[in-house]
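## retry 2 of 3
previous attempt timed out at serialization; input unchanged, resubmitting
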Amino acid sequence: MSEIAHIAATLFKRAHHAQRFVVGIAGPPGSGKSTLSTALRDVLPEGTAAVVSMDGFHFDDSVLEQRGLRARKGAPETFDFAGFEVLLRRLRTAEPDVAIPVFDRSIELSRAGAAIVGPDIKFILVEGNYLLLDEDPWRRLGSLFDFTIFVDVPREELERRLVQRWRDHGRTDADARNWIDTNDIPNIERVLAARRGADLTI
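## retry succeeded, writing output
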């Protein structure tokens, strides 16, 4: 059995007869949270799982400029935590047809109401850097997850993936390296230095 299939089987077993089972998938930038979430959705029974990304709650660049945070985009304080928390509470109670925002990295914007989570979705796979961050207000999220996963990847591999990510989005190597050094690496260090334990680390 593959690792993905094994994790999916674990989730399926843990969920029992629950109407809604919320899984938090955390890890530093570049760790593969989105890839893991999509892979899990695809191996769980068809039509029973949805992926919800914390990235949909990025503050717009104009808001970050006003707050002097543009250079720190992606840090915990550059997200609409309150909006994200409310969404997770709505999803947890299986409220019907919950609209979720989706972050479009190609245009660096969140698209409001870009997807709908219907009442028949059992598994909510939430992915984001700070789901296990042991800082206020982020630690309040702990009670909203039925199961948590932390994706642990060596630092060198994270940097390699991030360089490739920013190249793919049109940045020069020098610009990508500068952004990683001044933005991504501080975020990586924050995720690793202040995180709560997960039910499963991979």
